[in-house]
Structures are given as C-alpha cells and as structure tokens.
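Reminder: ligand-aware prediction takes two inputs, not one.
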Amino acid sequence: MTEAMIIGGGSGMGFALARVLVADGKDVTIVGRSTERLTAARAELMRAGDGAVQVMRADIGREDDVAELFAGTGQVGHVVVTAADATGVYGPTTRVSVDTARDVVNTKLLGAWLVGKHAAGKVTGSLTFTSGINAYRPNGSNTIMAAANGALASLAYGLAIEMAPVRVNVVSPGWVDTPIWNQLGMDTQAVFAELAEKLPARRIGAPGDIADAFLAVMRNRFITATVLHVDGGHRLT
Ligand SMILES: NC(=O)c1ccc[n+]([C@@H]2O[C@H](COP(=O)([O-])OP(=O)(O)OC[C@H]3O[C@@H](n4cnc5c(N)ncnc54)[C@H](OP(=O)(O)O)[C@@H]3O)[C@@H](O)[C@H]2O)c1
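Here is what comes back for the chain with NAP:
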C-alpha cells in the first residue's frame, strides 16, 4: 500500500516529507501540476532510498482532476496536502486582484475540501492540510492567503468528524526556506536573517522541520482535529 500521497510533493516541505519516507523504504505518490517538476523530483527521491515513487499530475483546484486522482489510486495510508501557489498574492489587499484571490481560495481551501471529498474511502490513516503563520500572526500582506489558511482549521475539524476514524489535522508552518519565496524577487536570505533574529528559535524553518511535523501527526494515532504550529515561536513576535 502507498504510505503517503503528498499533493504538492514536487517541491518544498512536501518534497522533504517524501524524501524522509522514501529513505525509510516507504512508497509515496507525489502530485502537482507540472509533470516536469514531478519527474525531476522523482529522480531525486529515487536516489534517497528504496521506497517506490509514483507521480500523478493534478490541479487540486479542479474537481475533475481530484476525482480522477483518487479514482486511479488504491488505498493510501496518509494524504498530506501542501499545494499552494502564491503568485500575485503578496502585498496589501487593495493591490491584489479578485482573480488572484479566487485562485488562492480555490487552491488552498476548496482544493483541500475536494481532497476530503474524494479521498474518503481511499485514505486509511490520516489527512493533513498545510496552513501558515499568516493566519495567526498577520503582517499586512497576503491577507487572502491568511484567510484561506485560517479556514483550514475549521475544515479539518469538520472533516475529522465526517471522516472518522481517519484523522484530519493541520500543520501550520512559520517561515520556511522553500521555492515558494523565489517569485517574490527580493533578497530572501536577507529577509530571513532579519526575521530569524526576532524568532524565539533564532532561525528560519527548514523543509525538514515541517516534514517532521507531518510525520508526527501521521504517526500519532491520538492526534485529530488539531492545528500543530511549527513556527519557531513566530506567533509571539
Ligand atoms: N514556505 C513558507 O515559508 C510557508 C509558510 C507558511 C505556510 N506555507 C505553506 O506551506 C505549503 C507548502 O509550501 P512550500 O513552501 O513547500 O512551497 P512550494 O515549494 O512552492 O510547494 C508547493 C507545491 O504545490 C504545488 N502546487 C501549487 N499549486 C497547485 C495546485 N493547484 N494543484 C496541485 N499542486 C499545486 C507546486 O507544484 P506545481 O506548481 O507543479 O503545481 C509545488 O510543488 C503551502 O500550502 C504554503 O502556503 C509555506
């Protein structure tokens, strides 16, 4: 049986989770929109260990894609959703287009709901969504993403009742050094260094920090309807 399907697993923290599992000999499926990105990720994962790596293309915001994804899948132990596209979403609300806002909600919130809808009966252990620090510590930018992230908690609580005994949780990362920042066109490392000084953990997150959190909620069979914050203490700054 596939240990985990990671939707968004072609890069960033989803990829980090896939790498840990493959290194442990577990079979994984990684899902995203870009076949090229998935194929490159698969090649790298296959160098990490003995687990089998399957790639499947799907846009989590499209019901036909998500339905097909799960129709073509046998039973899977855990589903983890890390998919997000932050294109055009940074900046004050007055400068973000409604099309961008719809895209964000469509991918992060409605996409997660679609996974809950179509994974039912296929996932046996847990379903985990990925939220984010901006839901809990707003910073005057990216507010629609923050709203979608915050709503994931309510979605997980509701699905934890509906899908029980499958466990449904949210991992909420702080700032993590992943490709999602690349499109911002800023000196990311300088911004990270500045924030790191203020964080109780005194560092920015690494993708592996979040992979460890995913593993914790996947493996602990008493964690359900929970938001696990993995943010280096960012909520206190
Ligand atoms: N990095 C941070 O500092 C941070 C902080 C807080 C929260 N988060 C959250 O953490 C999660 C993971 O982000 P990350 O930092 O690991 O970013 P990432 O490296 O950009 O990974 C996101 C992945 O999602 C896939 N994706 C995007 N839109 C998709 C769609 N509609 N359908 C299917 N796959 C899609 C992307 O691949 P394709 O483009 O090929 O589809 C990409 O591989 C996101 O939900 C993000 O909001 C990140």
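The mean pLDDT is 97. The pocket of NAP is lined by residues 7-8, 10-14, 32-34, 37, 59-61, 82-85, 107, 130, 132-133, 173, 175-176, 178-180 (CB under 6 Å). We will return to this case in the review session.
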